[in-house]
Amino acid sequence: MSAATAPVALPPAAAPAPKRQLFIGTALACVAGTMLVGGMLAIWVLLRERYLTTGLNGEVIDRFPIGYVIHEVASNVMLMTIWGLCLFAQWAVYAGNRGDRAHTGLALGVSAVFALAFINAQAFVWSQMEVEIADEYYGALFYAMTGTMLAIVVAGLVYTVVAAFRALGGRLQETEILSAHALYWYWAAAAYSAVWFVVYVTK
Amino acid sequence: MTTIDTHTDDAGAVAGTPSAVEAFFVGVADWVTSTDHKKIGRLYAGFGLLVLTAAAVLGLVLGLERADDAALLDADALLQTFQLYRVGIVFGGIAPLALGLAVAVTPLQLGARSIAFPRLALTGFYAWLGGFTLAIVALGRNGGAGGGDANMVDLYLAGLGLAVIGLCATAGTVATSVLTTRAPGMTMRRVPLFAWSSLIGALGMLISLPVTFGVVIYLFIDHRLGVQANFLGVEGIGSWLHWALSVPAVVVYALPAVGVAAEQVPVAFKARQALRGVMFAAIALVGITALAAATQQFTQEVTFDTDGETFLRGAVPFAVFIGLPLLGITGTLLLALGTMRAGNGRPSIRAPFVFGILGLLFVGAGIAATAIMNITDLELISPDGTQFTVFEEGATLLVVYGAALAAIGGLVFWAPKLWGRVVPDGAAIPLALLGAAGTALAAVPLLVAGFLDQLGGVPSSDADVARLLDTSGVDGAAALNTLSLVGHGLMALTIVAVAGLMLKTFTGSADDADSADDDNPYGGHTVEWGTTSPAPAANYDHVVTVASAEPQFDLTHDQTTDQTIEGSQS
Q1: What is the ipTM for the molecules in this complex?
Q2: pTM of the entire structure?
Q3: A33-201, what's its fold?
Q4: Which of A24, B69, B247, B566 has its CA 20 to 30 A from that of B385?
């Protein structure tokens, strides 16, 4: 081709794609969530230590109200459920990377079912323990801590639904949301492990 | 996946010529719904300046109450006024001001077309604005710590929680932007100092603000539904949240301002930043203060004993939470001095430099005062962090007002990029000096009064208020508090004057003398000075490629020529 017939300049280059923006954003949200759960557990432990020796009026009291029975089966099942959920979230990543639409949808669907199971188990624990929220010092602490954990799981459930819509709505190749979604559930499982140990095991 | 906003609202022209009324509503709608980070950042900063002005006026009024028995305010309103003042300067003032500047400028500095998650940044702004407004309303109707109306106490906590979530969400977008939207070639070592300090500040907020939110959740549930036994009832709210309104926690909000100041020195002295990597480390060390905030620490009791165990238990957290930030701010100042010495020719002392360097000095003084406050033998604060002198308020004011001065310097500096005008030095430099005088007068007398045992802190009950106002046993308290109230007045005057000056340039026409004809009127070194003034909606007309930490400086000094900024022109 001669210089006289050279083509005009190329169109402007596209803007560079952000580098794993959703994944990094989710990771930062997990950092903030860690501080939230960690800070609340720290206050729980601080108040528990105070009540180990003396009550509000100086009387000797038990650190865990005698009248309440923790349903350890349900709380342990919640722990297994949320770690099992991570397995399915990771399966969604694996299937998404292979372009396997059916298995991605199945994995995300099972993840959502597990999240619902967790919520159901938490409701069961609440109903069986029958902790009065206005009961001495324990009720407000218990519902604040377990309620925050439940909100984290509900947020994860919403994340799963959004990931499913995006992955199954024709954007299966964009697997970053699946990785970010899995990261969120790994963090939620770790957070619940800490809550489980402090609230249900050491009481 | 991309979450970059495409600015569709700026893409097409409106058919026909709208009337003045239509143009007004279109303009308002554009501002309140825009996902342009420059507009979101200015909304944050504008409201932050507004609240900071109001808080400074409240500081003036409370200073009058402390200086004599004038009794300007109704006795029943004093408790809420004290809280409004402290919540105002921190969560309503410096936090949104610093964060707004970071939102407005950081993507420009990164060579990015937009901030990460722009809709989340806007949502964060509205959450903060709505939450803070609710908190103000609740305080105005007998809410807050020690408030008499239980519903308003709940509303105060809910509003505060919402505001904290909003700040947290926006901080997340800033940090994600720095980590993911840098221009090709801009490695982390080439990130501008302000963008770096914004990253550290945003991470600090993400570490400390959720802890505040967790406390608010406990307090809300305990007060609303519980028996108010764990957290000492309605009066305990103040003591459980005091740490979030005081040093060292508030230093987190000063970090972007430290970056503004650090950025001004190389520009003013026409030199490269000396020991750039060390400067990065110094700013990061200041960010360690977030750990003090996250652990809700006021003070660490350093006591010598025979086996050293007690000493280590106090000395290690003291060194980490207080010593490292002090080392960081000292390092920042020394490196700034080093850059000054390496300057080429006569320095260009402009308004942003004056604002920035004065602000940095005050923030440094505030961190130093925090270290002094921790020497428990001085009895400026009780070892368990429950009793305070006004020294604590003085140290907090040094950090907050100092950071506000530096942040204002940042708005002045980047005004050409944000709204296409240069704020005139002739008017701005005297205002910087006035603000510095105001900061010194507001804070230093309180530091002195702290040594004279004048009680301080955020009151949680009417009894606390009575103790705070009782200065009968403090020699010279009237004079010191009078000086402090004058300082608050000068600071309020400074902010109003600077805001008016910026508004005047903002609403001026393109033919005005302050129109930024030169795209780089201050001789800035970083990549944002290569785009037009004001920057277009997508920040750059071309894809920027960076090959240096100071590309504009390289271009003007003809060292690596046009390799430092490359673009595929549209």
Answers
A1: 0.90
A2: 0.91
A3: Four Helix Bundle (Hemerythrin (Met), subunit A) (1.20.120)
A4: B69
